[in-house]
Amino acid sequence: MSVNLDTVRHIAKLARVRVEPAQAEALVGELNNILGWVEQLGELDTKDVPPMTSVVERGQPLREDRVTDGGDPEPVLRNAPDSAHGFFVVPKVVE
Fold this sequence. Notes:
It is an enzyme of class 6 (ligase). Pfam families: GatC. This protein is mainly alpha-helical and about 100 residues long. Helix content is about 40%, strand content about 5%. The chain contains three helices and two strands. A two-stranded antiparallel ribbon has the order 1-2. A hairpin with a 2-residue loop joins strand 1 (about 85) and strand 2 (about 85-90). Helix 1 packs across helix 2 (about 20-40).
């Protein structure tokens, strides 16, 4: 795929970016170079390459998985507008 001056103007209009005529001429070459690199990437055989989430291989830091009762409910319920018997009281939404 090749980008021409009209395409650069159209992309700029869609992106709502003001591009001066001198900049548009330079962008034609830059976008064509970028598209050339993308085409080179498409030629690579990535069939046996697993998907990655980062270029640096590292795992997620894990914490010990413990079941707790949540600690002390009193400080949490102090923030509630209304509570009763250790629970939040909410308005009835279904009649």
